[in-house]
Amino acid sequence: MDEKYFPEQIENKWQQHWEQTKAFQVTEDDPRPKFYCLEMLPYPSGFLHMGHVRNYAIGDAVAWYKRLQGFNVLHPIGWDSFGQPAEQAAIKRGVNPRDWTEENIAHMRGQMKRLGISYDWSREIAAHRPEYYKWDQWFFLKMFERGLAYKKKSPVNWCPKESTVLSNEQSSGGVCWRCGAEVEKRELEQWFLKITDYAEELVEDIKQIESSWPEKVLKRQRDWVGRSEGAFVDFAVRDSSQKIRVFTTRIDTIYGATAIAISAEHPLVDELLAESPLKNQVLAFAEKVKSDKAARGRIVDEEEQKEGINTGVLAVNPFSGESIPVWVANYVLIEYGTGAVMSVPAHDERDFEFAQKYSLPIRRVIERISHEQESIPHDATSEDQSIAMPHAFTEYGILVNSGDWSGKLSTEGIVEMAKYAEVHGFGKAAVTYRIRDWGVSRQRFWGAPVPIVYCEKCGMVPVPEKDLPVQLPDRAEFTGSGESPLAGVADFVNTTCPNCHAPARRDTDTMDTFVDSSWYFFRYCDPRNEAAAFDPAIARQWTPVDQYIGGDSHAVMHLIYTRFWTKFMRDLGLVSFDEPVKKLLTQGMVTNRVQGTDEWKAMSKSLGNGVDPDEMIAAFGADAARLFVLFAAPVENELRWSESGIEGAVRFLRRVYTMVWRWNERLAKTETTLASDEPNDQSSGARALRRKTHQTIAKVTGDFEDLHLNTIVAALMELFNELSAFAVDPATATAAEVFVVREALAALVLMLAPFSPHAAEEMWQHLGHAGGLLNSGRWPQADAELARSEELEIPIQVNGKLRSRVLALPEVTEEELRAAALKDEKIIAFIEGHEVVKVIVVPQRLVNVVVK
RNA sequence: GCCGGAGUGGCGAAAUUGGUAUACGCACCAGACUCAAAAUCUGGCGUUCGCAAGGACAUGUCGGUUCGAGUCCGACCUCCGGCACCA
Length: 852
Known about the structure:
The protein is an alpha+beta fold. The protein is about 35% helix and about 20% strand. The strands form nine sheets. Strands 8, 9, 10, 11, 12, 13 and 16 form a seven-stranded mixed sheet that branches. Strand 1, helix 2 and strand 2 (about 70-75) form a beta-alpha-beta unit. The longest helix has 27 residues, at about 645-670. The structure holds one RNA strand.
């Protein structure tokens, strides 16, 4: 054993050892209970950044902890290797995307190994390899069979800078999620996956994961699905057979409807106006609204003005029989509900604003429930109350001016009026969702081709399963024109119809890369299966994922798609549960100071505040880098990079190492059994050290369950400090002292393994243990009896302020404590001349003397 | 605007059910070792009054509940994140 701690040497040695012994490979025939620990698979950009390091350090800590506890831990890694950057590199530099990607993977794999992350490398997968994307295509065909994959011409989000289609999730806020360019709308034939069929489940099943996923992720998912309970109501158009269907969550306010407002894109706009003298004006307005919308996103902060135009058409309120005007309004969205709303200015802020601008009547039909008021307000109030209302009253209350419904509560009205509408055939209770179907078509080369063929005779024909995969060609022209590069590859496009064998053309779009990542962790279970995406029986042994770790940037996209995909796989009979991930941890960002400023921002090349993991490893060692990353902040917080912080981590490892070195020889020579009662002598330092050891084990084990990794490291440092304070010379230590030191050091080293595994393995060996720590199932057990304090220091307060402390045994009675407190000299001095009103004794905790 | 989350030393942060606020680390200061520096080790380190013993004040602000509040309640301020006409 070297006297000095040389991380490079130790890390190389153990990495080689792990590699040679295939230390982290797991099998399904292992009798131990399983644990599936998963980190989000990276895009192979070529270089690991500190965010990756943090992600994998957290995951590896969990994996090691569970292994040491005796679990059979599946801890795999792979590559989300389809996607834009490879294609950009091809366009800009003419490189082959496949070569570029493989080189990046090779480099990043090396970096991961230098970090010593305990992956089962035999299960490594990469999305761009045909043996993987074959199954993307297979799933696509299964969806196609069931009508869950369909093609439609639709306005899509188009990124002009990258010449591609984006999903709704990827164009949130009107800008491209990747390059920030403003998104345009285009009409294109696109493939969609029917995630909307699962909208209800995606909300409902949140119940199953509520306590184990971060609230902020669940909130964003709920918002994204946007479930809304309400009702449809049909308003008949006067002098026409047409009806306008509106969606409302407040059918109780329907007697207050003073207009119908429809979206500029509403299909009835043309038809309704056929004979109207206002036709040209209204259509011109509708066009203007559409172009304004296309331009939106440019000005983010400026709320758009509400604008509208009266079409001159009248619609009939089916409840009151009243005729009200139909307007086209820019604030009504075609994408949501029915693209038409009933305008109730008195009880909706937007309608109120609109009504004020265009002087539409504002009619109050809900009154606040007043507790002083004995009787329910009746309809005697005046008709037009616009003057009396400074803004809309959006609360629930009691219905007024609502015909026979007056006097009912809003909540009753909402239910009963929807029923009434259904009975009379002009509406019904309904639930709407904001979520849209998932557009997966990309006009890109570097992705999984859509396995569909177009035949003149047979039309759209799915590629038969036996012909999968539809292989990407080796190369294509990257024109950057916007059309899929595959369209220019004749060998690819031209094929024969699987049905009639006539010449046919392939679909030239590729799939969104989020398809690849929606099911990849099932593939890890059975990664080399050539006959299926995975064997359900094998997947059942590992899934669901017990702990998933990644950034919260995937709170809606990846994490909602993968939930959807799982439910689909369940419906195929491949899995038997609803939710793929039991526990989710979203780690915080890694930031660094931007040079010359006081700002902390995510590390990036453009800001010049990046830190290269390889340099960190070279300078301080992987163990110290990992220890620092886990210690410096709670896992979900932002992590501020600090060079001196990482130096502190090296110092700690060095001290522990030196301590092991000092005791190494003596530990080897002395029996491990506890030969006498000596360390149990209450007052001895040895007893105190044992107590600290067992207290630390209890704390660390508890904190691991909640992933409070930073406080675990603090606790390990405390244990080490106690060990240092136990200043016994190894040469002259008694057998009992050697025993407690061994116990403390062994516990410390074992519990350090999830943070700094190489150093821990090395020290474990020097503590006299043959064979590795790994899979030893030796996570230390806390002995509650040994952890218990024999002597308590009880704070004594006078009127809630700390004035003194007394020592007491844990068994001390309340009476004894009270007496001890009142006998205390300092306390006597404080209460002298005052009347003791009462004495509060909290057993084992504190005494508070209350005086007047 | 709406919905979340958070405000504790110079900094990152600790603190079971309300019960010794500031654990652990970083930075800083002093001392030891050294010709010297680095490294290492030892000690100190919320603010303030005091030679000291000790006291007063401190968890964003103001109030409340309580013997006792970082923790609970009410109002407000600030910061971060998400959504943004969702009927």
